[in-house]
Every structure is written in C-alpha cells, then in structure tokens.
Amino acid sequence: MADINLTRSHSLGLADGRDAVEGVAQQLEDDLGVRYEWEEDTLYFDGQGADGHIDVQEESVQIAINLSTFLQPLRGRVKTEAEGYLDRHFSG
After folding, report:
1. What SS3 class is residue 76?
2. Spatial separation of the C-alpha atoms in residues 4 and 7, rounded to whole Å
3. Phi, psi (rounded to 5 degrees) for 7
4. Contact at 8 Å (CB) between 68 and 2?
5. Angle between helix 75-90 and 13-32 (nearest 10)
6. Is 78 within 8 Å of 4 (Cβ atoms)?
7. C-alpha span between 60 and 85 (Å, rounded)
8. pLDDT in tens, 57-74
9. CA 37 from centre of chain
10. pTM for the full model?
C-alpha cells in the first residue's frame, strides 16, 4: 500500500487530464530528475526517494506515492504538495 493516496474528481476528460499530468511530469523530470513512463492511462514515476503512479480516468485522477525511509519524515509536506497540484489542475 502506498504511503500517500489521493483522488480527485474532474471534468477535463481523459485527453486533457493526461495533458495536465504530462506537464507536471516533464517539470519534475527537468527539475528533479524524476523518470516517468506511460502505460495506457497510468503514468509511473521514479525519483530519488519516491516512486508511484498517477492513474488518469475520464472523470477522476488518482495518485499513489511510495516514500523511502529518508523521505518519511516529510510525508505531510509531500502530501500537501500533491494535494495542491490536484487542486490547481483538477478541481471540479
């Protein structure tokens, strides 16, 4: 089970939802070296200290993040950042 699990409903549809996730994944890759790949409508990511996936559906998006032991003390901060991302890009 993931350390952080978040779900949000949205009205973007599948294509625009994927675009929103792709944009953030590219930014994380550029800024932090996070590697990612798509398998159908799920983006899998792996970076220093965290990995997980983002499942994009027609009317919702789900994020699951696994944190290394090193990042466990920052769990609250990582969760807050992920919630902020969801609220900015998938509200509604």
Report:
1. helix
2. 10
3. -140, 140
4. no
5. 140
6. yes
7. 14
8. 999 999 999 999 999 999
9. 12
10. 0.91
Whether residue 52 contacts residue 61, with contact meaning beta carbons closer than 8 Å, is answered with no
Residue 5: per-residue pLDDT? 97
For residues 15 and 32, give the distance between their C-alpha atoms in angstroms, rounded to a whole number: 25
What is the residue type of 17? Answer: G
4-90 folds as TATA-Binding Protein (3.30.310)
Q: Assess whether pLDDT exceeds 80 at residue 43.
A: yes
- pLDDT score of 30: 87
Give the number of other Cβ atoms within 10 Å of residue 23's Cβ. Answer: 11
> How far is 16 from 22, CA to CA, in rounded Å?
10
DSSP 88: H
What is the reported pLDDT for 92? 57
Strands 42-47 and 4-9: unpaired
Mean pLDDT of the chain: 92
Query: Which amino acid, one-letter code, is at 23?
Result: G
